[in-house]
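Fig. S4 source data, part A: sequence.
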Amino acid sequence: MTERPVRILVCDDHAVVRAGLLALLHSAPDIEVVGEAGTGEEALALARKTAPDVVLMDLQLGAGIDGVETTRRLRATSPASHVLVLTTYDTDADVTRAVAAGATGYLLKAERAEDLFTAIHAAARGRPALSPPVADRVMSRLRNPRPTLTPRERDILAQLAQGLPNHAIARALFISEATVKTHLRRIYDKLGVDTRAGAVAVAKEQRLLS
């Protein structure tokens, strides 16, 4: 008796990318595509109707909620459906946010078809699947933990979370704008990000903001 095919839902906001993924997935006899979505909201609705084993999730979904928030809601409303992220983004912030939201695996779109199929089957069983570059980054962070933030860096991060520009942060903390920039560079390095939004996202996930 053969195992039933893995039932999969594809969520990607680019129609051409979706078409390519669907063609690829249809070529695998042990995978059954049960739906496709171009937005997070569509994915949530389809998941409730089709109960897929795996949702193949992009992180950037254009208008509406992003892939991380969609993943979080999927895990809450459809816990039997595992989420396998398939994206072009591999920053520490993206990986951390996706895994914290409940993603079972994290793959890059540059992966070979065989590796994608293997990851899908692993995700369907609830087993983690990571692209080699992502796994390397995760292991590197485990071997070399990031240093904790200083009180001043936490102050600046708190101002950053309020959406304040550098000059406003400097004025609020009675320091120069150059000092703010120096602290921001250190914060980015410690959190493994390269944008203000990324720093705030990781800080929230790691509960660095009081």
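Fig. S4 source data, part B ends here. The mean pLDDT is 89.
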